[in-house]
Amino acid sequence: MKKLFILLALSVTVTFTASAQLLWKISRPDADTPVSYLLGTYHLADYTVVDSITGVNDVIGKVDGVAGELDFRTTTSIEGQMIMARLAAAPADSTLSRVLTPVQLDSLRAVLDKYTGGAALAQLEGMRPAFAGMLIELGRAAEMTGNVSNPVDVMIQAKALEAGKTVTGLETVEDQCKALFGGDIMEQAQSLMWGVNHDAEMKSTSRRIFEAYLHGDLNEILSIIEEDNSMDAVQTDRLIHSRNADWLRVLAGMLPAASLLIVIGAGHIPGEKGILKGLQKLGFDVTPVK
What is the pTM of this model? Predict the structure, then answer.
């Protein structure tokens, strides 16, 4: 579940170090292509962290619109809520009590009690193991860094809309739910229990990710992803690489036509299959904004 945590986000209200590099300028030599920007984030970080990244607020005012992983208006719609509920639900023959042993259920119950503020195991019986793992990861983050009142991605989109800018998603609610909760149920169960049984290691990993993000150290975040043994290559591809490829296809059509602030999870940016390299392969110059 560590990679899932990387995709989800830390809940932070902090000041970044001077060396933090999470904001990038996207340009192309031809004059007809407008300048855009890329911001790496953790989705549940508080909006106050943006004030510590020089230039982000100015960028919001410059661009034509914001492109996030999702248009968050779709997640609060009745249709979006129904899609999330459907895709997070387990098949009738693969509920938690069917894919986990009694001993595993006891261990899961203890960790849920510790991190989720009273989410009963019975309430999650009909959900996929990845959903239970997501709740635990969010609970770990909240315990370490506190709760968040203004999630940065949501607030950036809200500010863009207030300013009359466009807001769009690089994927749909269904796309994201399939990435987060899709795949083999037994593999999800194995990954869930790995996290439950390695709680101390998970906490240590959370701290490492936290520190790497505060330093804007994308290479360190990439290293944490690559060293994770709790998920196999298929799961990693579904959660990170395939989504990156899909987003790049969308951006290839969007960037020549409009100036955008692209706001995505920091774990999607680095690496040979990351968004930075992908944009460069599309012919864009991607340079850090100091």
Answer: 0.88
Asked if residues 84 and 108 have their Cβ atoms less than 8 Å apart, the reply is no
- Rounded to 5 degrees, what angle do the CA atoms 216, 200, 9 make? 35
Query: Per-residue confidence of the chain (290 residues) as pLDDT tens digits?
Result: 444 444 443 333 334 444 458 899 999 887 788 999 999 987 767 777 776 676 788 899 999 999 999 999 999 999 999 999 999 999 999 999 999 999 999 999 999 998 887 668 889 999 999 999 999 988 887 776 666 678 889 999 999 999 999 999 999 999 999 999 998 999 999 999 999 999 988 888 878 887 888 788 899 988 988 887 666 788 788 889 999 999 999 999 999 999 999 999 999 999 999 999 999 999 999 999 97
